[in-house]
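Suppose you are handed only these lines of text.
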Amino acid sequence: MGNEQLETGTILHEGRSSMAKIRLGFIGCGGVAQQHFTGIATFEDVEMVAFSDLNAELVNRTAAQYGGQPFTRLEEMFSAVEMDAVYIILPPFAHGPAEFAALERRLPFFVEKPVGSDLGVLREIAAEVEKADLLTSVGYMTRYRQSVQTARAILRDDPAALVYGGWIGSTPRMNAPIHQWWVAKEKSGGQLVEQTTHTVDLVRYLCGEAVEVYAVTAHGFVSDIPGYTIDDASLAVVRLANGGIATFYSACCADGGGGVNLNLYARRHTLQFTGWEHSLRILEDGQVRCEVKGEPDIFRIEDRAFVAALQTGDRSTILCSYADGFRTTRLTLAANEAMATGRPVALT
Ligand SMILES: NC(=O)c1ccc[n+]([C@@H]2O[C@H](COP(=O)([O-])OP(=O)(O)OC[C@H]3O[C@@H](n4cnc5c(N)ncnc54)[C@H](O)[C@@H]3O)[C@@H](O)[C@H]2O)c1
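From them, the structure of the protein bound to nicotinamide-adenine-dinucleotide can be written out as follows.
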C-alpha cells in the first residue's frame, strides 16, 4: 500500500487497514464523472456504494462496473444507502436539489465546477454550507498541480500586474450528451462560466479577488447548430483587488486550432502556463529559469485530497471549498451580466 505525495507536500495514506472504508455516493454519471470513477476505483480504502443519474441505462451500467446500487431518483438513493459523502457531477443548470439533499443530511460533498449557473440558488447553498460548517470540495482540479503551487509561491512575493489567459476551442461537434446543454447559454452559462472558469479560478487562486468586470461578446460566426445560444467568443476584463488587471478570452468557433493558456507578468517573473495539463515555464530576466510539467492524473490527485479530508477531518488537503468555488462562479456570472448589459459590474 503506497503513500501518495500531493503537490502541497501533504502525505496521504491509502488503505489503512484499521480504518473503515469511506463510502461514497455519486449523483451524475456522465462524461467527467466517469473520469473520477476510474481513479476512485483504484482507492482501496473507498467503497463506491451508490450511483444516481436520470439516464437509467447509464446508471445501471456504471453501478454494475463499480459495484454500487443504481438509482434514477436521488431521494431514493439517500433513503436506501448510507454513505460518508456524495459527489455531485451535474450540468450547471441542474444544481440545487442535490446540494440541498446533502445539506439536509449533513453529508460532506464534492461538486464539479462550475458550482451552478443560477446565482440565487448558489447563494442559498453557500449560506447553508457555511451555517452547517460542512466539509466540501469544488472540482477546480488545476489548483492541485505542482506548476500552480510553484507559481503561487513566486507570485506571493512578486505579484502579477498583467494577466491574460483563456480557452480557445473548435465548434462543438454535437457528438456527445454534454453538447446538448453546453451550446445553450441558459443551461451551461456559456463558455466562460463552464470552461474558462478554470482560468478564472486560477487567477483568483494566484492573484487574489476581483473587484470589477467588463465584458464583450462575438456572435454570428456559428449559425448551423440547433439550440445554439452561447457566444462564439468573449472577452472579460477584470480589475483585481491588488491593483493588477486580467483578461479572460473564450472562443468555441476556432476550428483551425486554439488551446488553453495563461500568462502572468510580474516585475521579476513571467509565468506561462500552456495546455490542459497547465505545464509551466518560468522566465526571469528574459531567460527561462525552469519548466514544470503538468500531471496527467489530476482528477485522481484531487479525489485523493477529498478522501483524505473525509478520513482525518483535516480540511487543509482540500484546495477549493464550496465558498471559494462559489466566488469563482459568481465572478463569471458577473461577467455574463456585463456581457448582457454592456456595463461594468462591481463584485461586492
Ligand atoms: N473539472 C473538469 O475539468 C470538468 C470536465 C468536464 C466537465 N466538468 C463539469 O462537470 C459537470 C458535468 O459535466 P459532464 O461532462 O459530466 O456532463 P454530461 O452531460 O456528460 O453528464 C451529465 C450527467 O448528469 C446527468 N443528470 C442531469 N441532471 C441530473 C439530475 N438532476 N440528477 C441526476 N443526474 C442528472 C445526465 O443524465 C448526464 O448523465 C459540468 O458542470 C461540467 O462543467 C468538469
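What can we learn from it? Residues 65 and 74 are 19 Å apart (CA to CA). The pocket of nicotinamide-adenine-dinucleotide is lined by residues 27-33, 52-55, 58, 74, 89-92, 94, 112-114, 139, 141, 177-178, 194 (CB under 6 Å).
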